[in-house]
Each structure stands twice: as structure tokens, then as C-alpha cells.
Amino acid sequence: MNHLMVKVKGKNKSVNQFRKVLSDKTIYITPCLDDIVEYDPATMLDEGQWYVISKFSTKEYCRFAFLRDKTFDSVDYEQLSISDFGNLDFLFSYQEGVYYFQNIPKSQLVRKKVISFGEHFKFDENNTSIIIKEFADAIYVREDDKLFFQKLPSITSIFKGIDQIYCEATDGETSEFLSQEFISLTEDFTANRVKTANRRRIALALNTLKALSDNDKKKVFSYINDYCPDLSATEESFNVANENDLKMLLFGIEQRFYTTPVGDEKRIANSIVKIEAPMMERIKIMVSPN
Asked: Nearest 5°: phi and psi at 127?
């Protein structure tokens, strides 16, 4: 049986904050989830693609017992009261073993498929109330223990702490990065001038640098020198005077620069997808002569 539920905001965490809204209604349709990529902040989705987080119930930000325990029974929850309407947090629909989550923005009241709140809760395809999106913000497939989503910011208020998988560098981490021996700051460029986009890139770069041996770092620095000679102070140090200099250096650490085999055009990869070994083997088979 299908059930539409809602989470009600409240300070008392010991009280069950989920409420029943409707039953026996298919609220969300399932999109095509054939084209998916394991979530990586360095990867930008193409149209129609979805991120996936595998083994989701084992993650610390999977905090709902009905997901971790893999059990759900609507009898455990009270019916939603009209008085709760101003304190709704998010919706989730349980449909044949699949959970569909939708964040509830505060001010989206337009004529669309909605849940009406009056004397009775009613599914109405042409009314002004809570917008029911065509596709949910997140989809959890219990059988596979996978969470699918397209935009991380749209689910951070649902799964508290999930934003830590793509976090900004703190002030301390930003200062730590800019104080590295291979960086020479010029024109009074300091940590407090680093904006959000570069703080996120710094968080990635710090992890990348930790995984590199000294020899690998030298190779990366040489690679950056080849593509960004204007940044070079020495063979292993770089001048950073502004946000763009910092961005180019961070792109270099993540090895985002490449040259086309035809035309020798130098480019920057705005998004990357790691090609795993099994995929490479399939590609070899596809191009092998008979």
C-alpha cells in the first residue's frame, strides 16, 4: 500500500514528528535511473542523470529509523492535523518499497497537482496548495540501499549532515592551504577574500594533496607550470593574487587541464567522471577488431 507522509518541525526530538497524510495514492513517478553516477563533487550531471549514494542506510546522515531498519508501517504514525500546516518540513511517499522525498519550500503556491488541506486531506490535480513535483528531490530504493538525487542543496534539510560530502573549507583550512610552501600570495590576497566556490575547491584539494607522494606533487606542479605559466614563481611555487589565480591553481591540483589530441587545443574540464577498470575493459572489447 502507498502512503504519503509529512515531517512536522518541532523542538522535541523524542516525539515522533512524522504524520500520515494520504493512503492508496501514487504521488510520484519514478524517473529513468539508468544513467547514474556515484556522487562526487567534481562531477557535474548531464541532463537526465542522477547522483547515487550506495549503502545509504550505513551513512551517518541516514538518521531515519524506517530507512536504517528497512521497515515501515503506517500504523505507527498519527494523522496530520490541520494545525500543523504551518510547520511542515518535508514530504515522503512510500510506494512499494521505494521512498520519495520532497523538500517543502515556504512560498510555492501555484496551480498544480497538490495536496489540499481543508476539512479533509484530498489529492487534487488542479488547486493552489503544496506543489507536488513531477520528480521527487530524492529517491531511496530500499532493495538496493541506494539514494538517488540530482541537487545536493535540495536535500540537505531532509538528510541533516549530508552536505558534509561537499563542504566548504573552514577559515582555518583556507588559511592552512594558502600558507603552503608552494603558494606565494601577492597583492594582499588573504583567506578572508576567498569565496564559496574556491573554498569548496580547497576542501577537495586538501584531500588530494594528502594522498600525493612528494614525487607525485612534483609531477603535478610541473603539470600546472605547463598549463599556467603566468602563475609560476618557481618550478614548485605559484603566485596567487586573486580568486581566478586561486581557481586555476586548484584546477591544476585536481588535474583538470588537458590537450586535445587533434588540434592541440588546451582546455579545462569543468566536470570529471572517473572511468573504472571494468568500464575500460568494456571499451576495449567494443573497439577490438574481429
From this structure: -155, 175
DSSP of 32-86: P-SSEEE--TT-PPPTT-EEEEETGGGSTT---HHHHS----GGGSEEPPGGGGG
**Residue 288 pLDDT > 60:** no
Alpha carbon of residue 228 to chain centroid: 30
pLDDT in tens, 42-62: 888 888 999 999 999 999 999
Burial (CB < 10 A; 0-12, 13-18, 19+), residue 116, is middle
Residue 39 confidence (pLDDT) above 80: yes
Give the cell for residue 194.
Answer: 576567498
From the list 29, 26, 8, 20, the residue with the least C-alpha distance to 121 is 20
Q: Would you say 173 and 203 are in contact if contact means Cβ atoms under 8 Å apart?
A: yes
Strands (E), 206-265: 232-234, 237-240, 257-259
**Distance of CA 153 to CAs 28, 114, 128, 237, Å?**
20, 23, 25, 35
The residue behind cell 553516477 is 37
Grid coordinates given for 256: 583538470
Mean pLDDT of 243-260: 95
Residue 121's contacts (CB-CB under 8 Å, 6 or more residues apart) are: 21, 22, 80, 115
Q: What is the pTM of this model?
A: 0.74
Q: Which H helix or E strand runs over 110?
A: strand 109-117
> Could you count the other beta carbons within 10 Å of the beta carbon of residue 159?
23
Higher pLDDT, 74 or 261: 261
- Residues 95/108, Cβ–Cβ less than 8 Å: no
HSE-up of residue 284 (Cα within 13 Å, Cβ side)? 7
